[in-house]
Amino acid sequence: MSTTPNGDSDEQLKVSEPKTWAAGVPAVAHALQYSLEQTSPRRTALTLLNMNQVDGIDCPGCAWPDPAPGHRHKNEYCENGAKHINDEATSSRVTAEFFAQHPVSELAQQSDEWLNRQGRLTEPMVKRPGSDHYEPISWHDALDLVATELRALDSPDEAAFYTSGRVSNEAAFVLQLFARAFGTNNLPDCSNLCHESSGTALSETLGTGKGTVSLLDLHHADLIFVVGQNPGTNHPRQLSALEEAKRNGARIIAINPLPEAGLFRFKNPQKPRGVIGSGVPIADQYLPIRLGGDLSFFRALNRLLLEAEDARPGEVLDRDFIDASTSGFEEFAEHARSTDWDTVLAETGLSRAEIEVARDEVMRADRIVVCWAMGITQHRHAVPTIREMVNFLLLRGNVGRAGSGACPVRGHSNVQGDRTMGIWEQMPDHFLDALQQEFGFDPPRVHGLDAVNTIRAMHEGRIKVFLGMAGNFVRATPDSAVTEEAMRRCRLTAHVSTKLNRSHTVCGETALILPTLGRTEIDVQAGGEQFVTVEDSMSEVHASHGRLEPASRVLLSEVAILARLANKTVHDKVDIPWQEFEDDYGTIRDRISRVVPGFHDFNARVARPGGLKLPNPVNEGMFPTRTGTAIFTSNDASAPTAPPRHLLLQTLRSHDQWNTIPYTNNDRYRGIHGSRRVVLVNAADMDELGLAERDRVDLVSVWSDDVERRAPGFEVVAYPTPRGCAAAYYPETNVLVPLDSVADVSNQPASKSVVVRLEPVGAPTAAGRG
Ligand SMILES: Nc1nc2c(c(=O)[nH]1)N[C@H]1C(S)=C(S)[C@@H](COP(=O)(O)OP(=O)(O)OC[C@H]3O[C@@H](n4cnc5c(=O)[nH]c(N)nc54)[C@H](O)[C@@H]3O)O[C@H]1N2
Ligand SMILES: Nc1nc2c(c(=O)[nH]1)N[C@H]1C(S)=C(S)[C@@H](COP(=O)(O)OP(=O)(O)OC[C@H]3O[C@@H](n4cnc5c(=O)[nH]c(N)nc54)[C@H](O)[C@@H]3O)O[C@H]1N2
Ligand code: SF4
Ligand SMILES: [Mo]
C-alpha cells in the first residue's frame, strides 16, 4: 500500500459483506503473515512464544489482563497483539543514510503507514534551525542540547512532557520526577485523549479513577454490557473472557452503532472447537444505538428499574446497599423518573420494547459488569454518561461485589500504570507530599497542562520545548492543522521513539529523534539485565522481560535517556541519584514502593509469578469520595445532533492499524479493503443526500468558529449504522475535530461526535456558494 497524507493511493477500494464472527483461523494466518513480512521466523517465534507468559514480554498491544499463572495458554496472544509486537521486532532499519536521502519536507508528505514501514530508528538525529535534514548527533550532544534549551527557559512551565501508555512504570516514574524536579506539572499524556472522562466520572462517584473488576469477576458475571467498544479488533482476548463468562451462564448486551464482528460470534483460535467449529455466540442482545445515545439509554433503563421497584417493592433495587453505602439516591430517583421517553427514543434510535428487553435481562441478573471504551469517553457528554452508568450499577448494588462492577477497558498497555506513577497534570497533594518526603524537594503544586491545553499553549508561544515519549502527538491529537502549526512554533521538539512517525516530520525549529529500546528487547545496564513493570486494565502489576537483541547497539533505554537528561538539567537543583536509577531499575522500584500507595515491597512482590494486584478501595467497601459514600448523580446533558443534511461522524480504528499507525489497507471485519479514505453512511441517508456508493466526497466539519476543516477525497460506502450517523478512520479525520470540541469536565477531545457535511468532489464549496 502506498498513500500520501492526502490519500492518493495506488490501491482500489473493495467492499465486501461485514463479518459476523471474529478471530478463528484467519486471525492466526493474518498475524503470522504480517509478522513474517516484518522479521525472521526465528524472531517471530521468540516474540510470540514469550508474549504474555510469566517471565516473558508483556504484549504492548493493549491493556487487557492475562489469566492467572498456570491458566495461560502457550499462545497467550491475539492476532493484533502478534502483529503489533512484530511491528516493533521488524528487521527494517532507519539509518543516518536514510535521513541523508530524505529531507524532512519530503518525509512530511509520506503516509503514516510508509513512515512506520521504514523500520526501527537506530541512532540519535538532529534537525538544526533552517535545515531540511536530520543529521547524526551523539547522545552526549543531543541530551546537552535538550538540557541547555530547558535551562534557558524563562519558566519551567514553558516546557511540556508528553507520554503514551507504551512507557513502563519505571520510565514513567522517572519522567514525572524529572518534570517536577525541573519545576512543572505539564505532563500531558495519551490518557487525556483516551479514558480521561472515565477517570473523572469514576473518581467523582466512586472515589477511584480505576475500574473495579478483575478477570474473575468478568468470568462469573450474570450479565455483561459491552458498550462503545470493538473488542474483536481492539481487545481481542476480551472475547476469550466473554466466552468463558458465557460458558458459566452469562448473558451479554452489546450497545454499538456498528454491528462489529466481535460482538456477535467468536471462534477462539486457542481451542480446537474454535478452529473447526462455528464459534460461540457473544451478544444475546445487540442494540444499534445512535452516536451519543448512551446517556439517554441508561437514564431510561434506570427509570424502568425504579418503576419495577415501585411495582414489586424490595425485589428490584438493593435497598440495603443504597442505604448503607450511597448518597444522593432520592434526588437521583426523582430526576430519573422525569426521563422523557420521546427524548430517549430520539436520542438512542432504539424502541421502547428493546430497552424493556434489556431491563428484563437486568432483572434476571444478580451480578452485572459494564465494560466501555472510546465509544463512550470521546463524546462531549462522556462524563455524565459514565456517571449514569455508575447510577445503574449502584441501583442493584453492583459495585464492590464479586462478579460485578465498572470496567473501563484501557487502551495502551501501561496507560493505567503511567497514571499510577504520577503522569498526570493534576496529581493530588498526597502524592506530591510523598514525592517531597522521599526526594527532599518541593514539587510544583499548580496544575499543569493537559494535551488540549498544551496545544493551545504551543500555538500561543507559551510552550517552547516539547519532549514526547512513546507517542505520536501531532497525529493523536485533534484539529491537525492547528496542532501542526503549534508544533512548528516550538523552539525545540524532541521525541523518544522506536519508530518514525509524523511527529518527527512536523517539528520545531530544532528537532531531535532520540531512538530507544522497545519492550521486546534485552536491556542490559551496569547493574546487569533489567526488566520493567506495567499495570493492566484490572490493576495487576507485573514484569516484562525483553528477549530480542536490540535493533541497534546505539540505542539507550527510556530510563537511561531520562536519567541522563535529568542529570544534565537539574543536577544543581535536586539531589537525586539518577545514575543509580539508570544502572539498576530495582532502585527506582524501591522509590516507587515508598511514594505510590499499594506498592510496598514492590521488588519482592513483582518477582512472584503474575506479579501483584493493587488494592481498589471500592472492593474493600470504601468510597473515598467527598461524602465517603458512592454518589448517585442527576445527569441531563443531551446527545449531540447534526443539522439537516449533515451527519454525526465518529472517528475510529480499523482492524489493521495501531492507533496513529495503519499497518495495511484491510479493515477485514468491516469488509473495507484497499483504502482508508472511506466514509461509512446509512443507505437511507445516502439516498436523502443524493449520494451513490463510491461517490467521492470531501468531509467538511461544522463548528461554531466558522473555520473550515476539510478532509478531502473520501469514498462513500453504504453501511449498517443508524440514520444520521457516519464513521471514518482516525487519524485521517483528526483534521475535522475542533480543538475546542471537548468533553465537559474531562477536557477530552470529542472525537466520536463530529458534525460534518459530505461535499461531493467537484461541487462548489460553501465559500463559493457565498
Ligand atoms: N488492534 C488495535 N488494538 C488497540 C488499539 C489499536 O489502535 N489497534 N488501540 C488501543 C487503544 S489506545 C485504545 S483506547 C483502545 C480503543 O478501543 P475501542 O474503544 O474499541 O476503539 P475505537 O476504534 O475508537 O472504537 C470505538 C467503538 O465504539 C463504538 N461507538 C462509537 N460511538 C459510540 C456511541 O456513541 N455509543 C456506543 N455505544 N458506541 C459507540 C464504535 O462503533 C466502535 O465500535 O484499543 C486499544 N487496542
Ligand atoms: N480522532 C481520534 N483521535 C484519537 C483517537 C480516536 O479514537 N479518534 N484515539 C485517541 C487515543 S485513545 C489514544 S491512546 C491516542 C494515541 O496516541 P499516541 O499514544 O500518542 O500514539 P501512538 O500511535 O500510540 O504512538 C505510536 C508511536 O509510539 C512510538 N513507540 C511505540 N512503542 C514505543 C516504545 O516502547 N517506546 C517509545 N519511546 N516509543 C514507542 C513509536 O515511535 C510509534 O510511532 O490517540 C487518540 N486520538
Ligand atoms: S488482547 Fe491486547 S494485550 Fe492481549 S494479546 Fe491482544 S493486543 Fe495483546
Ligand atoms: Mo487509547
Which helices and strands appear, and what pairs or packs with what?
Layout: E1 14-15, E2 22-23, H1 24-38, H2 41-50, H3 79-88, E3 93-94, H4 96-101, H5 104-107, H6 112-117, E4 120-121, E5 125-127, E6 134-136, H7 139-152, E7 159-163, H8 169-182, H9 196-206, H10 215-219, E8 223-227, H11 231-234, H12 236-247, E9 251-255, E10 265-267, H13 272-276, E11 280-281, E12 285-287, H14 294-311, H15 319-325, E13 326-327, H16 329-337, H17 341-348, H18 352-364, E14 368-372, H19 374-377, H20 382-395, E15 405-408, H21 415-420, H22 429-439, H23 451-459, E16 465-469, H24 473-476, H25 480-488, E17 492-497, H26 502-505, E18 510-515, E19 523-525, E20 528-530, E21 532-535, E22 540-544, H27 558-570, H28 578-583, H29 585-595, H30 602-606, E23 612-613, E24 630-631, E25 647-652, E26 657-658, E27 661-662, E28 666-667, E29 672-673, E30 678-681, H31 683-689, E31 696-701, E32 709-718, E33 725-729, E34 754-760, H32 766-769
Helix pairs in contact: 1-3, 7-27, 8-27, 9-20, 14-17, 14-18, 14-20, 23-25
The structure holds ligand MGD (2 copies), iron/sulfur cluster and molybdenum atom.
